[in-house]
Amino acid sequence: MSGQHPSIKEGWFTELSDEHFPGQGFSLQVEQVLHHSRSEFQDVLVFKSTNFGNVLVLDGIIQCAERDEFAYQEMISHVPLFAHGNPKNVLVIGGGDGGVIREVVKHDCVEKVTLVEIDKTVIDLSQQFLPSMACALNHPKVHINLCDGFQFLRDVALAAIDERYDVIITDSSDPEGPAEAFFQKEYFELLKAALNPGGIVIAQASENFWLNIDYLQGLMNIAHSVFQKANYCYTTVPTYTSGQLGLIICSDDSRLDLTRPQRHPSQQEQDILKYYNPEIHHASFILPTWADRLINGRNDGI
Ligand code: SAM
Q: What positions does the domain PABS occupy (predicted)?
């Protein structure tokens, strides 16, 4: 089903949010609307843009665009995976477009990846319109669960699911809508309970230091109250409002330095990466002075 979308006017899609970024908007020129529907969980739009390839939008917020998606997928995947010495069992919450899965299976040491996506519509549309992202969803290491990620983690905590993970990646949409619970303390506690010793979690923070630094401070306070270690890093993505997105990475192993890779990509692995490298891993944790003071509560660098 296709149709016009309320965020598209005179051939331009505009992302607006009075609550999160009042007084500004981010626009992309639309070549063609490929799909618009209301799934059981959210408003789903896919359009072909004039300069950024196909774009997936959920509840009016851009999730990924073909031209720059690798900047997000690589950083949210490879920062925790290379910070871990030997990740074997990986859980991805959300991520129905498949971009993170594509990155996780690049690690030969990973034996199993579980994807927990609430909305099958996102998976189906990504396979149709974002094939370069969805390309690994049928990989033999990948197991797909169509359910609520919060409930899935509750089942892990109650041992109804008898598994623990080395790395958990929360590749969710923003707090308004089905992903709301992912930005609260109970979720961080469930993540901690689902980790193997030495395990690492990372979550997209939904904000960046230009848009809403107070919100990031609050999220970091939650992360610090649950985990021994919590760090903020970021990636640059032109199609996210303000051009960047924060990531929060945590572990209960106080010996781990999450800001440095424990393993370095082999030459073969590095050759197929476009954004991540060991230097940018560390650099992504270094913040401008004012942001470092507010987010990390200090002014002494990393
Ligand atoms: N790269 C994106 C970003 O940061 O904007 C996230 C991409 S991915 C498309 C987000 C996915 O999280 C969506 O497919 C959405 O359906 C899924 N999601 C939202 N709430 C969820 C929940 N409670 N359980 C599992 N998946 C959820």
A: 10-252
Q: Which residue's CA is the closest to the ligand 1 atom numbered 20? A: 179
Q: Could you tell which of 126, 173, 247 is best to mutate to test the pocket of ligand 1, judged by most ligand atoms within 8 Å of the CB?
A: 173
Give the residue, by CA position, lying nearest to ligand 1 atom 21: 179
**CB–CB of 87/94 below 8 Å?**
no
Q: Can you list the alpha helix ranges (DSSP code H) found in 140-296?
A: 149-157, 185-193, 213-226, 267-271, 278-283, 289-296
pLDDT tens track for 185-206: 999 999 999 999 999 999 999 8
Can you point out the beta strands (E) in 120-218?
A: 142-146, 165-171, 195-204
The CATH code for residues 8-65 is 2.30.140.10
Please indicate whether residue 252 is annotated as part of the active site: no
Q: Which of 68, 97, 119, 171 is catalytic?
A: 171
Q: Give me the CATH code for the 69-296 domain, please.
A: 3.40.50.150
Between the CA of 171 and the centroid of ligand 1 the distance, in Å, is 6
Break the chain into its structural domains and give their ranges.
8-65, 69-296
How many residues can be counted in the chain? 302
Atom 8 of ligand 1, residue of closest alpha carbon: 95
CA dihedral 141, 147, 150, 155 (to 10 degrees): -80
